Amino acid sequence: MKKLTFITIITTFALSAGAFETPTMGWSSWNTYGVNINDSVIRSQADAMVKTGLAKIGYNHINIDDGFQGGRDEKTGQLLINRNRFPNGLKPIVDHIHKLGLKAGIYSDAGENTCGNYFDNDSLSVNVGLLGHEAQDCDLYFNQLGFDFIKVDYCGGQIPSSHKRYWLDTRERYEKIHQAMLATGRDDLRLNVCRWAYPGAWVYDVASSWRMSGDINCSWQRVREIIDENLYLSGFARNGHYNDMDMLEVGRTLTQTEDETHFGLWCMMSSPLLIGCDVTTLRPETFNLLSNPDLIAINQDVLGKQAYVVRADSTGGYTFARDIKERGGKERAVAFYNPTDSEIRLEAELSEFDLIGPAKVYDALHRKKMPDAKSTISVTLSPHATEIYTLKGKDRLMRTIYEAETAFLGKYQELHDPHFVGSAYHIRDPRLRGGVGVANAGVTADNDIVFEEVIIPSDGSYRVSIHYLPKKTSEFYISADDEQGYAISPTENGDDIMVGEIDFELNKGVHKIRLYSGDVMPVIDYITIEPKSTVNF
Ligand code: GAL
Q: Can you list the positions of beta strands (E) in 117-271?
């Protein structure tokens, strides 16, 4: 094996941020009220968002979830509103929300019936979904009533309704709904796809965010499961489009430590932040957490990044990192997370976070300055606890390791069997670095593995090493910036991780490294990229 040593400092350039939409913030009715919403609930929560000051610090959406519908007029197809819950309809509420300077959100389903009809016996939510009523309902919601946001659920798209059996095509449904939204003439609307899984790259053209998991509930187990499901989806939060980890259960019955982990990691992972508790009775510690400006600044950061896993530790803990403010800058946000039921200690080298010490350390969760870190940071975490720091290093190191599970996978999706539709997926195997890699890439050009932001500090010759599990398949290819691809011929050698190497001339700046093939690729573990002059033989 060749030994690689390298220390390359990024000091000479800063890359400007894109002008992205940041994750949606606000309040939503579902977690506390379910379908039992009404005029006074929505008004009083909207008023409380202003009174508490939460609205002013960015929570600017008031979203009405399932439960407002009152069936459909059979003759005209007009959607009706539940008059017991909303005697004056929805228009006065939307106007009230707008008068408060906030945005109003509504809910529907891609099929015929909403989830409330199936799971909450809400008989008036039958035939109120968007199926067959896309133009009519979008005109009602966005032009007549003036809503600014919509969450579109999918129960009616896949569950047999009382009289018809539907198994609709997800992509087709959401694209059609998006078209109907555009046809209203409004260009300021946000759509949330509630399909309970990352649906595929088509979603960037239709939605600001998509639910990546099934429903949250107010339990530690569910919060932990959702974080777990989102660990390796960081590559899919891009260009102002986000993995939605579901509405917040903060301020309800979780412990304060669990609330902190829940909120803190939703911020680190750039999830939309929709408060789900009763804001008229907020506890002071809940208010302090939800209004923490340092955590909100991470969530709303201009780069729109989702923190990626730096290390899956043998204790069961995780460390995460993400750039903030400036790609490749000296300042980063990092998290230390303990999902286990025992106390653990995590120790990380600053170099693991691509920083050179000494680093200034700021505890973003508890809002206090910490002693500078020379070269390591150690954190003791009680069960379920998380610490979130912003680090400002003396210098930034070039990132040399790019895990395949943090890449953008062109055809990745979670709706269908990946073998059946030919899409890459994340695979766990103890031989892989961090225990996770990417399987089943290749065959079609779009089923590729793309490291979208490889930051190169200065013009020069760089060696890219691709680490993969042994497998006898035909060649796969690597390219930089969509230029000429170079072949790697996979080989087998027992159980050892194999390494293929290619040299590239790269200019200072951001580059795209892509792996692709016309055949099924071996399981890709990670790539390293190092300046060639420092490769020792
Ligand atoms: C679920 C959805 C929840 C909530 C509920 C309403 O499918 O994931 O967030 O909207 O339906 O019935």
A: 149-153, 190-193, 209-211, 242-244
